[in-house]
Amino acid sequence: MITEVDLKHLKRCVELAETALEKGDEPFGSVLVSSDGEVLAEDHNHVAGGDHTQHPEFALARWAAENLTPDERSGATVYTSGEHCPMCAAAHGWVGLGRIVYASSSEQLAEWLGELGVAPSRVRNLSIQEVIRDAEVDGPVPELAEQVRELQRKFHSRAGR
Ligand SMILES: Nc1nc2[nH]cnc2c(=O)[nH]1
């Protein structure tokens, strides 16, 4: 179930995705929140430099591994504008983070990119549950997913893409 608190954090993720787009990166943003509701870290996509592993969910998993105890990690929630890719889901699982809440799903993203004529990436489009056993996952949220869709449309309609 998605709560008002979840929506607040997801809206921040969409803002971070907008920031990424403004900087020429792919429009994705994520926030890590502790079990008592404190925002611990946030990031957006940083692939414009050419390193396509620079996803915010991956950065947050590594931040959590360096800065949180195993108990703190399992109690923490990752909010994200788009469902984790398999690389980031694996990192999330390996470091033992908890719940994931996303605004838009990977299935939605694949559908939107198909409509925009964007070729599928080499990395397969797996759901988080296909990568992490017993994952606790909520999403998508239709009104926020529409905003993410618009950011993707803007990103892929830029000159040179
Ligand atoms: N969730 C997510 N999916 C992606 N696909 C390509 N880049 C990203 C990213 O930064 N986050």
TrEMBL record:
Enzyme class per UniProt: hydrolase
Organism: Bhargavaea cecembensis DSE10
Residue ranges of every copy of the CMP/dCMP-type deaminase domain listed in the record: 4-116
InterPro entries: CMP_dCMP_dom, Cytidine_deaminase-like
Name used for this protein in its record: Guanine deaminase
Enzyme Commission numbers on file: 3.5.4.3
UniProt-listed PROSITE patterns: CYT_DCMP_DEAMINASES_2
SUPFAM superfamilies: Cytidine deaminase-like
Pfam families, alphabetized: dCMP_cyt_deam_1
